[in-house]
Description:
Elements: E1 37-45, E2 50-58, H1 69-73
Antiparallel strand pairs: 1-2
Amino acid sequence: xxxxxxxxxxxxxxxxxxxxxxxxxxxxxxxxxxxxxxxxxxxxxxxxxxxxxxxxxxxxxxxxxxxxxxxxxxxxxxxxxxxxxxxxxxxxxxxx
Length: 96
């Protein structure tokens, strides 16, 4: 069975009445699905004579902080994680 992240259904929590202003239910945020974003770059490996695809992931909390290798692997199908998909430093971009 394959899981498709795009087919995830969201549930809308039932509204409750409270007197505390900090806990007021905001219906405008009910249907927002937070997703991680990725930058993609492609290089050519002359030694193996094959293209290589590089991904740089960013958090979904609005802070735009880079994801760790382990966090990016959570978005990869388990058949490919740590086999076809590996975590390496980009040869032309500085950073973690």
